[in-house]
């Protein structure tokens, strides 16, 4: 019988309790240090009434407490729901209503971007904790039990409506982590040190950095924030980081910091890019200033999340996201779901043990994306005769800013609520650092309105990466025969 995630963590602890596990703020934690914290947290959770099938929502930066709290929840048969601190109060309240958590755990530190609603009025207990210590005693709220095999619930932005919640089981995550470990040709679980700096409310950061290290025995550097990149490089040097998983924006910032004179970690040997398409033009600068080649990868939250990645600098094909991980089956299909001949361009469908079985409390979206055991990625790809995957386009209008998903409807809803706006449409615009930025086209209801006025209006209601960086006033939009706005045409504009 396959082990649960917490059983794998415990077995590593029992095997070598004094071995270094994670580097945090200048010091190494041993496996015993970490496991002791998980046991303390487990007792607090149990005393609070936390039971199998319950969920704890977190609003925490990357930190030992988040990792330990996850293991504690799993030991009691529950799940963790990592949420984005900067999502804004409106979105967070909707997430809380939807995921129905037993409690909400937040960082007991000043945060530049955090929610502003009155926690005293919340029906769900809000617990403040340090980034490296035990949670305080508390009494939990009412919570409906769900599938105890679920380990983590991630919210992922779609292109329409409310973001989907993806429940990933112990089996999903375990399968993906060990498939990724076996896929990389030069990964050494004994000597490598991975950087865990991607936000852990995102599956790429949580699973591919934090969880991959915890389950495989690789040591990790835990950074609560990547910014400024100079400080991140200092920590990478101090901890001896050899392996970095990042989004293109982070890689560009590391390159810029190195160009300004920051020391590059001497043992850095692998740099993997995910979350968005890597700009091929940046590759030469990365090699020159960081001394490594970028291995581009591709993943989806529904897939736990890694789907494909170039296995090593020597085996990579620039412009591709590499071959699929072991365990995935694929089909490339046409618009009518017909399977296409090898080498043809079409929509990628996947099957495998890393893929969730459906969305949390969302039968409509589940029925749309999961059919007969297959998952529709919505991405248009081409796969060559060696199995290397090229992502040609997104079948949706999703905008990705620095690795974070933005769906146009949320931006448009805010703009349209301004009294001087008649109608708006948001699209992604290519940007050299962040991959994309949000651009909004606006039909004015009052010609006196200015772009600055609208941007300031959005800044008060949206996360900074969702706020339109460019606003263009137009008389009308390109539309189809039913009056639907054609964003493809807007992007061409």
Give the secondary structure arrangement, pairings included:
Elements: H1 5-15, E1 20-24, E2 27-30, H2 31-48, E3 55-59, H3 64-75, E4 79-82, H4 89-99, E5 103-107, E6 126-129, E7 150-156, E8 164-169, H5 170-183, E9 193-196, H6 203-216, E10 219-222, H7 229-239, E11 243-246, H8 248-259, E12 270-273, H9 283-290, E13 294-299, E14 306-309, E15 329-333, E16 346-351, H10 363-369, E17 370-371, E18 374-383, E19 389-394, E20 399-401, E21 404-406, H11 408-416, E22 421-431, E23 435-444, H12 451-459, E24 470-473, H13 487-492
Parallel strand pairs: 1-10, 3-4, 3-5, 5-6, 9-10, 9-11, 11-12, 12-13, 23-24
Antiparallel strand pairs: 1-2, 7-8, 13-14, 15-16, 16-18, 17-18, 18-19, 20-21, 22-23
Structure description:
29% of the residues lie in helices and 26% in strands. It is of the alpha/beta class and 493 residues long. The chain has two domains: 5-379, ANL, N-terminal domain (Rossmann fold, 3-Layer(aba) Sandwich); 399-492, GMP Synthetase, Chain A, domain 3 (2-Layer Sandwich), CATH 3.30.300. The chain is globular and about 65 Å long. The relative contact order is 0.09.
Spans where pLDDT lies below 50 across 5 or more residues: none
Number of strands: 24
Count of all domains: 2
Residue-averaged pLDDT: 92
CATH-wise, what's the superfamily of the largest domain? ANL, N-terminal domain
CATH class of the largest domain: Alpha Beta
CATH topology value of the largest domain: Rossmann fold
- What separation lies between the terminal Cα atoms? 56 Å
Q: Do you know the CATH architecture of the largest domain?
A: 3-Layer(aba) Sandwich
Structural class: alpha/beta
- Give the overall silhouette: globular
């Amino acid at each position: 019988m396959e082990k649960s995630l917490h059983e794998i963590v415990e077995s590593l602890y029992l095997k070598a309790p004094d071995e270094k596990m994670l580097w945090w703020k200048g010091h190494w934690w041993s496996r015993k240090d970490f496991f002791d914290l998980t046991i303390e947290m487990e007792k607090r959770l149990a005393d609070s009434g936390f039971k199998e099938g319950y969920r704890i929502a977190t609003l925490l930066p990357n930190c030992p407490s988040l990792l330990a709290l996850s293991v504690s929840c799993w030991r009691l048969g529950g799940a963790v729901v990592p949420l984005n601190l900067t999502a804004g109060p409106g979105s967070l309240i909707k997430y809380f209503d939807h995921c129905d958590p037993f409690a909400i755990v937040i960082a007991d530190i000043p945060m530049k971007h955090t929610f502003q609603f009155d926690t005293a009025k919340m029906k769900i207990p809000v617990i403040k904790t340090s980034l490296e210590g035990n949670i305080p005693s508390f009494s939990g709220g009412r919570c409906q039990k769900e599938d105890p095999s679920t380990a983590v619930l991630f919210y992922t932005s779609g292109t329409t409506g409310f973001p989907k919640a993806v429940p990933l089981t112990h089996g999903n995550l375990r399968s993906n982590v060990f498939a990724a470990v076996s896929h990389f040709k030069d990964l050494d679980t004994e000597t490598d040190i991975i950087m865990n700096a991607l936000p852990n409310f995102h599956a790429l950061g949580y699973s591919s950095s934090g969880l991959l290290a915890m389950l495989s025995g690789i040591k990790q550097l835990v950074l609560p924030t990547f910014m400024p990149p100079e400080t991140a490089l200092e920590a990478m040097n101090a901890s001896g980081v050899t392996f970095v998983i990042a989004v293109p924006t982070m890689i560009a910032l590391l390159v810029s910091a190195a160009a300004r004179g920051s020391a590059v970690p001497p043992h850095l040997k692998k740099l993997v890019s995910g979350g968005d398409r890597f700009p091929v033009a940046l590759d030469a600068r990365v090699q020159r200033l960081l001394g490594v080649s970028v291995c581009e990868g591709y993943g989806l939250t529904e897939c736990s999340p890694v789907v494909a990645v170039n296995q090593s600098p020597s085996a990579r094909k620039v412009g591709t996201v590499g071959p699929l991980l072991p365990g995935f089956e694929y089909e490339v299909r046409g618009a009518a779901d017909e399977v296409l001949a090898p080498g043809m361009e079409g929509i990628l469908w996947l099957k495998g043990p890393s893929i969730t079985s459906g969305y949390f409390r969302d039968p409509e979206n589940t029925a749309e994306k999961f059919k007969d055991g297959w998952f529709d990625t919505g991405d248009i790809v081409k796969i060559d005769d060696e199995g290397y995957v090229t992502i040609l386009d997104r079948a949706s209008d999703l905008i990705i800013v620095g690795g974070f998903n933005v769906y146009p409807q949320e931006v448009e809803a805010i703009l349209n609520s301004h009294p001087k706006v008649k109608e708006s449409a948001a699209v992604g615009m290519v940007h050299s650092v962040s991959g994309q930025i949000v651009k909004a086209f606006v039909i004015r209801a009052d010609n006196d309105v200015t772009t600055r006025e609208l941007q300031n209006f959005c800044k008060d209601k949206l996360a900074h990466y969702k706020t339109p960086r460019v606003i263009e006033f137009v008389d009308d939009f390109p539309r189809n025969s039913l009056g639907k706005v054609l964003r493809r045409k807007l992007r061409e504009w």
